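User: Quick sanity check before I run a bigger batch. Here is a single chain. Can you write out its predicted 3D structure?
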Amino acid sequence: MKKRAARFQPLGILSLAGYLSAKNPEIKIVIMDMRVELALYFRNHLDNQQDNNQQVHDRISKDFLLHYIPGVVGISCIFHSVKDAVHQITALVKDILSGSKVVLGGSYPSTSPELALQDKNIDFIVEGKGNSVLKNLSRFSTGQFQHLS
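Assistant: Done. Predicted structure follows.
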């Protein structure tokens, strides 16, 4: 029997992007799925065996951040098993773009908010369903709101 890795589409983040675009059409939303980016990189660089996943991940992330220079970086973490990798990503974001706000959503920050907020690189967490919270957060970050609820 051939072993296969489980593949999950980022439906939550895609749904949030669609909702946010409809509510705030002036906001530019760009989504990067690192699983896809890594797969494409290694498919196109089969001859380069010296790169490891972490080096490639960091290089792709840095290039992406410097290209778009986002004011808000949203990260979804649906599994506690990858929380350490998420915290590495938040550190990378703040190292490259210290002025950007980092928002973490998904089941990890929803079920363990105290643990997630121990990371000084996370500015906001979204607990539970993120539609209205993300809409208000985007308006707050652009100066349209003075208070978040």
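Residues 144-149 have pLDDT under 50 and may be disordered.

User: Great, the batch can go ahead then.
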